[in-house]
Design brief:
Length: 408
């Protein structure tokens, strides 16, 4: 995923509960429900499902009092039904699909994340084959996503979270790094094979580790550094033998890695209680504003002179517009699905999911575009992906042990 989870999402803001009547006067207070673990720490969230009042109030009320404060539907379900026997057996409220099959729902999220990511990469590369203007296409990606967010806010799905100047100052560096990483990724996609760009981007964990060690001052265990050696070696072998290699694609992918690394650093400083959907929407809006000027300066004259006319002449106006719309929609949806998916799982599952996603994209791009790769390129790519998998596994285990140590 090009976009990582950038915020601490929250579950339920407040749950109102009445207190016992005292001296004939009823009073009420609020019980805060804290997030079930930070997203960056692998906390599992209940995404899009309603917490049942009976579960929240289980520990706070005796049986006799609990029945009175349940929602009407729950209270009715727990009361004796008509025609029931004298034992008072009542009907149990049905369990929702999301609660009954959480593993199946999470698996579906993973499938949709991979599916949308593959479709985006394939359609994106096809557009560059007849319309090689990555700066403009990057703007379209973000523009379609921003329109989607504005429409979602307008209908209240989700409700727009308020923005203030302090939060804006925190999000601007994140959005700038997001914009730079996104644009340079697209420049690389336009210049070389999709599989090669993703192979180079496998180096992102190396840059993250280096930034954590030398910029944030966090000590990186030697085991993590050793696990990154196959990544560097594999990418080097693949780069030396890649048939589509050129310096524009290679350098752009490397800049993208560095940009996303700094995005991660700034994201840690911008942790907020705002939900991830709203955070990503605000970041997309700021990133769009950042991307428009370079697109106009670097590609504007060419687009006006012959870029649009050449692209339309090759595929027709209808397909040209529909391709740009759908590539932007797939870009936004796969990033949003990635956010929603990774919020549901632990760090280890997160790590495995990211590695498998890259394998899927590389494999499908080779099949769809028929890219010819040498034996050395294939070996280098496999070694790099194996190194990323090893690094991700070790890092996730270390984070899990650290979190359990703090809990103890």
């Amino acid at each position: 995923m090009e976009s990582r989870v950038l915020s601490r999402a929250t579950t339920v803001a407040h749950v109102r509960r009445p207190l016992r009547e005292s001296n004939g006067n009823a009073s009420c207070s609020f019980l805060s429900i804290k997030p079930i673990g930070a997203v960056s720490e692998g906390g599992n969230l209940i995404w899009g499902t309603q917490l049942r009042p009976s579960l929240l109030l289980e520990a706070s009320y005796p049986v006799t009092a609990r029945k009175e404060i349940l929602w009407p539907v729950m209270a009715a379900a727990s009361s004796p039904a008509e025609g029931s026997d004298s034992s008072g057996d009542g009907k149990v409220a049905p369990v929702g699909f999301f609660d009954k099959y959480p593993a199946l729902v999470t698996g579906f999220f993973f499938f949709m994340w991979y599916f949308l990511n593959v479709i985006f990469n394939i359609l994106n590369k096809k557009i560059y084959n007849y319309f090689p203007y990555p700066y403009f296409v990057s703007v379209i990606h973000l523009f379609v996503g921003v329109v989607y967010c504005l429409v979602s806010w307008a209908v209240g799905l989700p409700k727009r979270a308020p923005m203030d100047s302090n939060l804006l100052k925190l999000l601007i560096p994140v959005a700038v790094c997001h914009a730079l990483g996104h644009v340079t990724s697209n420049v690389s996609f336009a210049a070389v094979a999709v599989s090669f760009t993703h192979t180079i981007k496998a180096l992102e964990p190396f840059f993250n580790a280096a930034a954590s060690q030398f910029i944030l001052g966090q000590q990186i265990p030697i085991t993590l550094w050793l696990s990154l050696a196959p990544v560097v070696l594999g990418v080097s072998v693949a780069s030396l033998t890649e048939l589509s290699f050129n310096w524009t694609g290679f350098i752009s992918a490397m800049i993208s890695n560095i940009s996303f690394t700094y995005r991660s650093i700034y994201s840690k400083k911008a942790m907020t209680d705002m939900d991830s959907t709203n955070i990503y929407a605000y970041i997309s809006i700021i990133a769009l504003i950042v991307c428009i000027p370079p697109a106009i300066i670097l590609e504007g004259p060419q687009l006006i002179k012959h870029g649009f006319s050449d692209g339309i002449a090759k595929v027709g106006l209808t397909k040209f517009i529909s391709d740009l719309f759908w590539v932007g929609m797939f870009y936004h949806l796969y990033n949003q699905l990635a956010t929603n998916t990774l919020e549901r799982v632990a760090p280890l599952t997160h790590a495995v999911g990211n590695v498998l996603k890259r394998v899927f994209v590389i494999g499908f791009s080779i099949v769809i575009f028929g890219n010819k790769i040498s034996t050395q390129t294939g070996i280098g790519t496999a070694v790099a992906i194996a190194g990323v998998a090893t690094y991700s596994y070790i890092k996730a285990k270390l984070e899990e042990e650290k979190r359990q140590g703090k809990a103890a």
